[in-house]
Amino acid sequence: MITEDSISKPNTESGKQLLEAEQVLQNNSNFKTTIVRFGGLIGEDRHPIRFLAGRQGIENPNGPINLIHQIDCIGIIERIIELDCFGVTFNAVTPFHPTRKDYYTQKAVALGLSLPEFDESKPSVGKTILSDKIETVLGYEFQNKTL
């Protein structure tokens, strides 16, 4: 379980660069900054199942999903501005974390796409990102809780 208070330990080059960018922004006293760490984006014309449909050997079948809908991204940003809530870091993912296999299989069926096939030969890894702070600090209620 990862919260905003968890120690950041990025293991990819892009993750390291994002953390460095956050620190640069937070340390600049010339403007107000709030860091919003969005999960994987879903929108009306954007859904990861479209890239995974029919694929084979997908790793981490039992890893949790950490996604967010575009409507909630916009709503969270609007709420930060409304409340003048700066100097804070937020994780922004929908509080809905089924396994990758369950979620993407269900979405493929619902959209009439070929089922993805998952590699279950290795143990799944993954993190559940918690975004409770969005609800408690901003009073924001997610609009798309089950994506």
Notes on the protein architecture:
With 147 residues, this protein is an alpha/beta fold. It has one domain: NAD(P)-binding Rossmann-like Domain (Rossmann fold, 3-Layer(aba) Sandwich), CATH 3.40.50. It has 5 helices and 4 strands; from the N terminus they run αββαβαβαα. The protein has helices at residues 13-26, 49-52, 70-83, 100-111, 132-138; strands spanning 35-38, 40-42, 67-69, 89-92. The strands form 2 sheets. The chain has a two-stranded parallel sheet. α2 (49-52) links the parallel β2 and β3 (67-69). The longest helix has 14 residues, at 13-26. The protein is globular and about 50 Å long. The chain starts with 12 loop residues before the first helix and ends in a 9-residue tail after the last helix. 17% of the residues are buried. The model has no long low-confidence stretch (mean pLDDT 95).
Keywords:
two-stranded parallel sheet; Rossmann fold; 147 residues; alpha/beta
Question: How is this fold's topology laid out?
Answer:
Layout: H1 13-26, E1 35-38, E2 40-42, H2 49-52, E3 67-69, H3 70-83, E4 89-92, H4 100-111, H5 132-138
Parallel strand pairs: 1-4, 2-3
